[in-house]
Design brief:
This protein has 397 residues and is an alpha+beta fold. 54% of the residues lie in helices and 16% in strands.
Length: 397
Amino acid sequence: MKEWNNILKKIIKTASGRLRLLLAIIGLSAALLLILSAVQLQANYNDLLHNKSNQDSVANFLVVNKQLNNANYGNTTLSAAAIEDLKKQPFVDAVGILTPSRFKASIQSYSSQFPFYTDISFESVPAAFIDVDSSQWHWASGEEIVPMIAPNLFLDFYNFQFSLSQNLPQLTQEIVKMIVFKVNIQTPNGMVSLKGKVVGFSDRITSLLVPESFMHRANTQYATDNALQPSRVVIRTKDPGNPALVQYLKAHQLTTDADKTRFSKYRQIVNMVVRISWITGIILLLFALLIFSLFIQLTIASCKEEIQLLITLGAAPKQLRQFLMWRFFPPNIFIMMGAVLIIGLLQYWVASWLQQQYMFISHILSAYTFATALVFLVVLWIVNFVTIQHYIQKENN
């Protein structure tokens, strides 16, 4: 067998086709780099969206309400049918109704050193939708203090605008949690005063929240208006940048915080880049396979008489096929390994850079990228084998 291989090496020369071989290698390398990059890019994007380290407990919750315009002025409530339709959407995991207070209220401080007073309205939401972990977030009939969750926006407004203009002290979250406020509720029978205490601060919902149990009781006892439909809901979604979510809100004239859905445009760009990479990579791969096939065909055709002589002398077509496979397929393995290595180095660099931006992806290549490389390696082996088998049989006839 070794002697036959030595003879074949001397007879089958490829020097005349080195340029074609070089073109095939370049084309195949570019094609594999584009295809593997597209797969890894999609894997990285999914990692950014769904990795627990990247999930944003604020961005994944969206407060949704109707767009206010001249057509719906004075009628921005959400119907039960609209809320049920929202719950059925595949990009929505859960919907919580923001129940508004139906009574006038104000809060003020008891201390003369901190003469704070403001009119206020309350909202309540199911406990599963709050981002404050507090054992104090509950209320039952007869309890003296009403727990409240305030938005950080309120505290920022007070510290950096209101307190400066009113010559009042600035307050930290810890100080505010220590203060007991007087909660005044206007009822049909006069003013009712309760005590309230801020137990946490939230960036998720920009309103003053109270427990649902208190809101139900207060609306029942103190309401000055008839029962109203909710005008806002909060939804939990795995992907606030999902284009389908953005399109649904736009089609139903609903709106939410634009900052939380801005990634929808980025995602569309990423998807377009991935598609272009796939299409370009496949086209380059087809051209590379064609060039490789032509190169193998020309190599075998240039040695037609020698191959026929070797077969006459006793060389089996199987030996020729094995020799040619060992001669033409190994470069494909090295090209694939080189492409995987380049993508791997780029992945490590990108992951390290994103980590500095507090975004986290894996430093190693995705299993899908390795699987894609293996699949295309098998495809290359099949193309080489079929081409060699076909032309050896053709020259043997």
